[in-house]
């Protein structure tokens, strides 16, 4: 697919061409392959410079010519891209994803989530994350739910994204997708980090459907529709002596930070350990509460 070549083309190379020993594409590829083989740190690249497998993967014969790039070279290029070049790399990834389809699809669903990337010191912009119990970065990943293909990744600080930040990332993602697929219907799925007012307002204004996790609160726990459905589920479980019994319900809910009420689907799970209720908020008007929840 030429992924490393495409990404390397996004970064300016100020080196004198006549003095270049390692092409930027080869530096990229060696670093990516090392990570794929479990070598997270660039320090190991010094020991892999003459590794036969790595040399062959980069089109170099074992024992012939210069070895692979050293650790200092890798480290310099890891920190070389500017913010503008990082944006170009993100756009290039989306371009490659869209090109993987022979024709624009009628509809696509995007999964967006952040993943804990543990650091091994006090790297710049890393933070302690109480949820994960680690000092980390918290990169955002976007995947195609139908194919599992990666759409975009964004390295970012170790804190949970705010509503404004999440809306900005989704806006840029949609803008790039629309350049390729202006008529494709887009649905975005994510956990409670992305069920923010700013994100939902943007999606509704641009015809984007969404299904986001919704943290529980006192208002939802006291909602009469949810309470009635939960009581009925608990009674049916007890009468049937089921270890676990699930039920679904839906209601309309509007948080103080929202400008309107929105559809909320609840998954109610009664078991011998008690009651467990989870919620999602969605713009989808069709489908049962069970279908909406299972979509997430």
Strand order of the largest sheet: 6-5-1-7-8-11-10-9
Which CATH architecture of the largest domain is right?
2-Layer Sandwich
Percentage of residues in helical conformation: 25-40%
By DSSP (H or I, 4+ residues per run), the number of helices equals 10
Average of the residue pLDDT scores: 89
Question: Measured on Cα atoms, how large is the radius of gyration?
Answer: 24 Å
Poorly predicted parts:
none
Number of self-contained structural domains: 3
Query: How far apart lie the N and C ends?
Result: 30 Å
Shape: elongated
Give the total of beta strands. Answer: 11
Largest β sheet strand count, sense and barrel closure: 8 strands, mixed
Classify the secondary structure makeup into a structural class.
Answer: alpha+beta
Order of helices and strands: HHHHHEEEEEEHEHEHHEEEH
Strand coverage percent: 15-25%
The CATH C-level class name of the largest domain: Alpha Beta
**CATH domain topology of the largest domain:** Nucleotidyltransferase, domain 5
SSE layout and pairing:
Elements: H1 3-8, H2 24-36, H3 52-57, H4 71-78, H5 83-99, E1 107-114, E2 117-118, E3 127-129, E4 134-137, E5 140-144, E6 150-154, H6 163-180, E7 185-190, H7 197-205, E8 209-214, H8 218-221, H9 224-240, E9 244-253, E10 262-271, E11 274-282, H10 289-295
Parallel strand pairs: 1-7, 7-8
Antiparallel strand pairs: 1-5, 2-4, 3-4, 5-6, 8-11, 9-10, 10-11
Helix pairs in contact: 5-6, 6-7
């Amino acid at each position: 697919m030429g992924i490393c070549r495409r990404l390397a083309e996004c970064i300016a190379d100020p080196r004198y061409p006549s003095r270049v020993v390692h092409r930027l594409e080869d530096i990229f590829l060696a670093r990516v392959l090392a990570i794929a083989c479990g070598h997270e740190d660039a320090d190991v690249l010094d020991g892999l410079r003459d590794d036969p497998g790595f040399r062959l993967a980069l089109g170099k014969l074992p024992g012939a010519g210069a070895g692979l790039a050293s650790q200092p070279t890798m480290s310099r290029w890891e920190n070389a891209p500017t913010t503008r070049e990082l944006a170009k790399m993100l756009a290039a990834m989306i371009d490659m994803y869209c090109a993987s389809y022979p024709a624009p699809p009628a509809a696509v669903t995007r999964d967006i989530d952040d993943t804990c990337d543990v650091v091994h010191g006090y790297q710049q912009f890393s933070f302690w994350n109480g949820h994960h119990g680690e000092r980390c970065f918290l990169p955002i990943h976007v995947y195609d739910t139908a194919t599992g293909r990666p759409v975009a990744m964004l390295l970012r600080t170790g804190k949970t994204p705010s509503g404004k930040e999440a809306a900005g990332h989704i806006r840029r993602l949609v803008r790039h997708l629309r350049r390729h697929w202006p008529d494709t219907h887009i649905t975005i799925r994510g956990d409670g980090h992305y069920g923010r007012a700013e994100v939902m307002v943007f999606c509704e204004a641009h015809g984007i459907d969404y299904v986001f996790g919704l943290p529980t609160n006192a208002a939802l726990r006291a909602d009469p529709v949810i309470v009635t459905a939960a009581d009925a589920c608990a009674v049916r479980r007890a009468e049937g002596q089921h270890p676990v019994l699930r039920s679904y319900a839906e209601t309309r809910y509007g948080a103080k930070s929202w400008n309107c009420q929105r559809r909320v689907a609840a998954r109610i799970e009664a078991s011998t350990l008690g009651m467990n209720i989870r919620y999602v908020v969605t713009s989808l008007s069709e489908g049962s509460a069970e279908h909406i929840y299972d979509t997430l």
